[in-house]
Design the sequence.
């Protein structure tokens, strides 16, 4: 199957492309688009850098011998880490919110974490927003087409269509969330 992708679709797929999570034909289609579109390839480089920083940070923290960061790996920082996603999602009480902010100000490791999560979230959000009427519907439709390919029926009951679209959107959101939290 030949994929023809537009810019919005490519941008939405970039995270999966960088992490090698696309199937082969889709991955080739993204690569071809990137070769021919400067705007998307710039976004690709930017996102790749952010993701690389993420994994670099992850391994830096994992490596015990990294003294630069080790001094900031305090109990306070561990508390910050544990509360980071709740903080980003506005789920903390006011006093906990202030505590997290104070840690972020005083601890460079915490500050860097926070900045990167925000940058990543923003990038992800803007690409999802721009494509929510575009790719999600398209993706849902394609998945539905595949699901019903084998049945000879020409028409799909609207209820199953809705269930399919809803399931696809949920899968998209969960993948996004996992990417966001998995650093
Ligand atoms: Zn493009």
Sequence:
């Amino acid at each position: 199957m030949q994929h023809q992708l537009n810019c919005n679709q490519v941008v939405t797929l970039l995270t999966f492309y960088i992490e090698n999570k696309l199937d082969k034909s889709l991955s080739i289609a993204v690569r071809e688009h990137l070769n021919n579109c400067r705007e998307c390839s710039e976004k690709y480089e930017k996102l790749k850098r952010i993701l690389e920083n993420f994994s670099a940070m992850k391994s830096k923290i994992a490596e015990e011998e990294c003294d630069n960061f080790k001094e900031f790996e305090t109990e306070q920082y561990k508390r910050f880490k544990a509360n980071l996603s709740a903080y980003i999602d506005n789920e903390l009480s006011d006093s906990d919110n202030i505590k997290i902010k104070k840690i972020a100000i005083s601890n460079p490791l915490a500050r860097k974490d926070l900045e990167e999560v925000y940058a990543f979230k923003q990038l992800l959000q803007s690409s999802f927003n721009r494509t929510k009427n575009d790719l999600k519907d398209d993706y849902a439709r394609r998945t539905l087409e595949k699901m019903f390919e084998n049945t000879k029926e020409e028409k799909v009951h609207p209820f199953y269509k809705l269930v399919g679209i809803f399931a696809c959107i949920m899968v998209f959101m969960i993948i996004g969330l996992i990417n966001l939290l998995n650093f």
